[in-house]
Amino acid sequence: MTAGKVVIIGTLDTKGVELQYIKEIVEGSGLQTIVINAGIVGKPYFEPDISNASVAEAAGTTLMELIEQGDRGQAIDVMMKGSAEIVRQLFQAGQVGGMISVGGSAGTTVGCYAMQVLPVGVPKIMVSTVASGDTSPYVGVKDITMMYSVVDISGLNRLSRTILANAAFGISGMVKGSQSTQTQAAEKTLLGATMFGVTTACVTKAREYLEERGYEVLVFHATGSGGRAMESLIESGFIKGVLDITTTEWCDELVGGIFAAGPLRLEAAGKAGIPQVVSVGALDMVNFGSLDSVPGKFKGRRLYQHNPTITLMRTTVEENRQLGKIIAHKLNQTLGPTALFLPLKGVSAIDQEGQPFYGPEEDEALFQTLREELNPVRVTIVEINRNINDQEFAVAMAEKLIQMLEAKEN
């Protein structure tokens, strides 16, 4: 089977020399390429397969209008949207085996925006001058490989040649490798699960139980980006069932911690109508950075230094009531089979007798709110007199999810 083509995107007026160099290496490795010009004003260094005029038209405007407006910010926005639309069309036509781009801040914005329309698993490399900093705005929840250019992308020299060549050989190897590892074997049902350090024992046991019964489980670290990634994969149709044990990201969303996943967390599975077993893992904590990073307004709150870079703050009775209302509201909208499991002996490894976040009053506020707010027609509540990390609790959740999956199949 022939490997898909490598899409090369960039501004051929300012980065044409570098893009041509990458194109020659990729084609020299035996792969075909599709070059998209995302430049605006200048003449392209070489003839692309898809012109900048076509990119502008894909975004609903014309290149001439962009030039006449003279608004660089607006032009970048148009080229982002047009490039993404073209890449989407190419992928739907079965033309894309992988994608590579080079650029500064603007080029990185355009290239990564277009890469994000590709599914997880399709190779993506971005060679960028800004790849050594915070890359979360560019990567989002997709598997984009960010490669720091070290020097500015401005011509070829002994250093830039090496870095660009590594990137070109990298994308070539990824595309060939992803093709060669495809298998005709029947795929296992793919499930999602959420985990935190303080719910690891629970999730590990549940995952092992599910895997022993023929399921494949993707575990997401509930640090904001992890929750968003899982929701994105559910929306894309990859995940067929969810063991959402660790909903702690809602603590950070509500109170202002560093691991918030956004207001849409806990919605994708319900909208997709896939089976979901949910719990209240780590709703006892809000996450901050080092101890001195905790906002002054929280002075006097119960804090626990998880490690030198992470400080945990115990949620209060009132915060737990609010969390209960939020989670109930999200789950009440479900279109598929849904169960909520309550561990009556604590929601994390440090929320049990003798541990720093032991809080029966706080937990009961959460549990009682959920009992009152959940719609019993849509959501089944299961209460177990165990800590969330007890094996019996983990197995019970896994068994419930299996029951739901099998019922949906029949």
Task: Record keyword descriptors for this entry.
410 residues, 41% helix, alpha/beta, 6-stranded parallel beta sheet, elongated, 14 strands, 5-stranded parallel beta sheet
Describe what this molecule looks like in 3D.
The mean pLDDT is 93. With 410 residues, the chain is α/β, with parallel strands linked by helices. The protein contains 14 helices and 14 strands. The radius of gyration is 24 Å and the shape is elongated. Helix 8 packs across helix 14 and helix 10 packs across helix 12 (317-331). 41% of the residues lie in helices and 18% in strands. Helix 6 links the parallel strand 4 (124-128) and strand 5 (145-148). Strands 7-6-8-9-13-14 form a six-stranded parallel beta sheet, sandwiched between helices.
How many helix segments? 14
| Major sheet size, sense and barrel closure | 6 strands, parallel
Structural class: alpha/beta
Task: State the shape.
Answer: elongated
Helix content: 40-55%
How many strands appear in the DSSP assignment?
A: 14
**Low-confidence parts:** none
Q: N- to C-terminal separation?
A: 36 Å
In quaternary terms, these chains amount to single chain
Gyration radius, to the nearest Å? 24 Å
Element-level helix/strand string: EHEHHHEHEHEHEHEHEHHEEEEHEHEH
Mean pLDDT: 93
In short:
The protein has helices at 16-28, 52-58, 63-69, 72-92, 105-115, 136-139, 158-180, 200-212, 225-235, 249-255, 268-272, 317-331, 360-373, 391-409, and strands spanning 5-10, 33-37, 96-103, 124-128, 145-148, 190-195, 216-221, 241-244, 276-279, 285-288, 303-307, 310-314, 338-343, 379-384.
